[in-house]
Amino acid sequence: MENKKKIELYRSMLLIRHFEEKLTELCRIERKLPGMVILCTGQEAVAAGTCAALEKDDVIISNHRSHGHLLAKGAEPNTVMAEIFGKKTGCNKGKSGTLHIAVPEVNALCTTTVVGGGIPIAVGTAFAQQYKKRRQVTVCFFGNGAADEGSFHESLNMAALWNLPVIFVCENNVYSGAQRMEEHTKVKDIAARAAGYAMPGVVVDGNDAEAVFKATTEARLRCLAGEGPTLIECKTYRWRGHGEADHQAYQPKDEIARWMERCPVKKIERELLAAGAISNQEISELEESIAKIVEDAVRFAEESPWPAPLEALDDVYV
Ligand SMILES: Cc1ncc(C[n+]2csc(CCOP(=O)(O)OP(=O)(O)O)c2C)c(N)n1
């Protein structure tokens, strides 16, 4: 991979990390953020690696752990932050809050918190892309828990049958809520399920952004060649609880520590330093500029007005 592209990946991951660390801080202030805040800290390489392999017109469908996906696809930090605050200037006018954000400007069409609910929607958008003969693909992000839902199996079957241009990206972060994967399925690799639907299934190190980028690039080319979908399983780990109110009593401390040693952001940073592609000075400057983007986003959100109560009736279709 070219150093320029690798630095892009690093920057994308740093933005997600800083953005979400700020959310962790804000969650400690009572009543600052409405609703449940669900973070992808530790999983940044999946969002960054996948989205770096996509074009702007490609579609992503996200789940409850969405901030990384949206930022990596190019969503504006200011309007995403304002949306998380529930403000009128948010990308969904304060009506979605953190859990249901859509950013149509970057083709992040839908975030659904119905576990497994995004997978058939992605099959639908991929069908539209194929039907309209667009050179575009759809990526669907979902967790390992979602891969045990009926919607996952039905969707993979249909997508394979119709050779749809869809890439199923399973972020296997070991847990689903408070349950470990082995408590709800006997399979070791979710990717093995792809064989049941006659599509390629790939396991990648989900803490290696470059590996995720390569797997997505190959899957995208297969989609564009009319060869249909791919299931990519990214093995990673959730550093935080299911949501920020979760005290993680069920996650062994030494397990968290082991995975933190495998930090995806530090990994790419070490590689860039070793290759002489970036200096410590440049890293500090990059961190500073990203910290400023996040501070500006928080200021923008804090200074923005609340939506008026009657605006709840705008944009309602029926
Ligand atoms: C259909 C449905 N069942 C249950 C829930 C409650 N719920 C929300 S997130 C979650 C865990 C999802 O785990 P996983 O798919 O592995 O994603 P992760 O949270 O690990 O990223 C559950 C059970 C829900 N939102 N929707």
UniProtKB/TrEMBL annotation:
A GO molecular-function annotation: pyruvate dehydrogenase (acetyl-transferring) activity
Essential cofactor(s): thiamine diphosphate
Species classification: Bacteria, Bacillati, Bacillota, Clostridia, Eubacteriales
Database matches in InterPro entries: DH_E1, PDH_E1_Alpha_Subunit, THDP-binding
CDD domains per UniProt: TPP_E1_PDC_ADC_BCADC
SUPFAM superfamilies found in the cross-reference section: Thiamin diphosphate-binding fold (THDP-binding) (SSF52518)
Biological process annotations from GO: pyruvate decarboxylation to acetyl-CoA
Domain Dehydrogenase E1 component, residue spans: 12-309
EC identifiers of the protein: 1.1.1.-
Gene behind this protein: acoA
Keywords in alphabetical order: Oxidoreductase, Thiamine pyrophosphate
Keyword Oxidoreductase set for record: yes
Protein name (database record): Acetoin:2,6-dichlorophenolindophenol oxidoreductase subunit alpha
Domain of life: Bacteria
A Pfam short name: E1_dh
